[in-house]
Amino acid sequence: MIKRKKKIIFIKVFIVHLIVILLIDLNISAYIKPNTTNEININANFINLKSISLEDLEKKRALIKEKKRKLEEKKRKKLEALKKKKKLAAEKKRKEEEAKKKTLEKLKKDEESELANYELEKIEKELLEIQRIENLIKQQVIRNAQLSDAEQRYILTIKSKIENNWLIPHGTKHDKICTAIVNQLPSGKVTSVKIHGCKGDSLYIESLINAVWKSSPLPIAPDIEIFQENIVLQFEEPE
Amino acid sequence: MKKLLILILLNFLLFSNAYSELTIKINRAEIGALPIMIKFFGKTNNFESINFQKIIQNDLYGSGYFNVLDSNNVKNNLSDMKTQFALWTLAGTNYFLKGEVYTENRNDFIKFDLYNVIKKNIIISYKINLKDNNNIRKVSHTISNVVFEEITGIKGIFDTKIAYISTEKKLNRKIYKLHVADIDGYNSVAIYKSSKQIMSPTWSPKNRKIAYVSFENNKPEIFIQTLATGERVKLLNNNNSSSAPAWSPNGKYMAYTSSVNGNLEIFIYDLIKKTSKRITNSIGIDTEAEWHPNSSKLFFTSDRSGKPHIYIKSIANGIAKRVTFDGVYNADSNISSDGKYISLVHNSGNGHKIALFSLEDKYLNVISNGRLDEAPSFAPNNKMILFASKKIHKGILVATSNDGRIRKEIELEGEDVREPIWSN
Questions:
Q1: Phi, psi of A36 (to 5 degrees)
Q2: Distance from CA of B338 to the nearest CA of A (A)
């Protein structure tokens, strides 16, 4: 009798939570459009990092949905849920899935309802936190997308200006890649050029330094937030 | 919870991006000579600036490292340096050499400033008193050296000398001369003249003497001539023939070739003890000794394998080791002062050409395109090679960059010349 009452209370609590979750989920999916990745699909390293983060966000969201559905099914048929999870799990998340299986098996043995309830609460908290962070990230992604477009153009203009001014004398010997650290003012005026870890003929090293000085002033950053006082240049002689 | 952690981490990465450095890859460049402009002003009763300017322009251009731009239409005497640098930059030059010839207290001077137009600064500034240095060519070559070394970091060779043999035909008689000249062929002086053949000149390590082979006694014999005094001494104090002299870099020995029962072998002569020691002993011909910079090993040409090739042998002991394997003919080696390369005459079936052989990676690179090229020798900075070539049946001298890219004939007023050798 008491057991049955407990069950009813649990169902009620669950339905309320479910509604809350659905509301939150709708909210999130209204905010985020999946095609934002196109804007920043450019080749610089740090931009790749950003697009990776977006993809990950999508994955996270999918996983959360999945989890909710699973819990619902678990309510009806726990064993069936186990089978379905197998089908739905992405290969990358296999380890996580295995961990879940273990926890579910444990659930069977222990007092299942209490644990399920506890897990539900935990998921809900997680969801709220995820939503909060997602909102923050979303704002930053929009800002970064704007920046990286401009930043990419900025990088290309600096690159082409220095490349146009790079004159290597014949027959010089040197390391494959030589790095230069350039200091500049917001006006683009170069204030110092330092070569790091480059073994080679002085004529070659001088050609790197001259290429930078000849390019001073460097192109002005289109947005002061993109401007970097220090620029790292990786010189690699073309074949 | 794991997911949450990952998200937080991602979040951190995203936000921290704003503080990273900008890294830019630069992988496109022009490969070529450095643009430089040279302009000398003024004149005195004895000197005209244009004479210095022309020699320096010729030197730097001939080195292969510089593209000498026409400086006539560029203003060079602005007192406002900012505008001056802007004008030079516009003219497309990286360096500007500005000089002036003038009189001060009845003395003639030449002064020059070398500007880095890119960095907008003066690299060097010099003044030379022309009273003590009145040879225009010598002063100009010295200035070329200073400028070249300052910009390239490589030792300049514009004031070094070359020696060579010329042949003249007069009334069916041949006259042979041994010359010493500037590397551009000027200031040529015949230091020895003979109606009998002379050949194989070689410089002493300090360039004070020249050893060469003379046939004045109707057989090859090595003579050493002191440049300052003209004094001549026969190397060996016996009647043996001797040829192909090579001074050891430490100045102690002279390696030479002599005939033993009709077969050529290499000997070394101790210049202090005045004794000879036989180095090679093979059934083939061994000749054209060339010292390794450490004075303990000899390169030489031998046909013991059937075809002429370069070998190396320690003067102390040991067996000769074959060095070259490419082609059908490798001879007359000359080693770079850093011991890394030998230049030699190479034939792989299409004529005698000059090649560079890397002793480190055993790679042979042909750097001349004649059919009868011979007698290569390195410049003291190892960046150029001097050799003899043929042009319409007449011998000429050619200086080439060590990659064969720049080729410059040395002007010698139509003489028939051969066997050049660059001083040390």
A1: -65, -20
A2: 15
Domain boundaries, position A212: 169-236
My answer on whether A133 and A177 are in the same domain is no
Kindly list the structural domains of chain B, giving each domain's residue range(s) and its CATH number in brackets, ordered by start: 34-152 (3.40.50.10070), 161-422 (2.120.10.30)
Domain identity same for A124 and A183: no
Whether residue A71 sits in one domain with residue A182: no
Closest CB to A228 among B15, B21, B32: B21
Q: Is the pLDDT of residue A50 over 50?
A: no
Residues B296-348: tens digit of each pLDDT: 999 999 999 999 999 999 998 888 999 999 999 999 999 999 999 999 999 99
| Contact yes or no for A63/B4 (Cβ under 8 A) | no
Q: Is the pLDDT of residue A19 over 90?
A: no
Rounded Cα distance between B424 and B421, Å, is: 9
Task: Tell me the sheet residues that pair with B202.
Answer: B211
Q: pLDDT tens, B111-122?
A: 999 999 999 999
Virtual CA dihedral for B17, A57, A144, A156, nearest 10 degrees? 80
Structural domain contains residue A226: yes
Per-residue model confidence as pLDDT tens digits over B156-209: 999 999 999 999 988 888 999 999 999 989 999 999 999 999 999 999 999 999
Where is A104: in which H helix or E strand?
A: helix A94-109
Task: Count chain A–chain B contacts defined by CB atoms under 8 A.
Answer: 142
Within 318-337 of B, beta carbons closer than 8 Å to A belong to none
- Helix residue ranges per DSSP H, B91-191: 136-152
Q: From A156, A183, A212, give the residue that closes a domain.
A: A156
The CATH number linked to A218 is 3.30.1150
- For residues A117 and A15, state if they share a domain: yes
Q: Using one digit for the tens of pLDDT, what is the confidence trace for A103-129?
A: 777 767 666 677 677 778 888 888 888
Overall domain count for chain A? 2
**Does pLDDT of B18 surpass 70?**
no
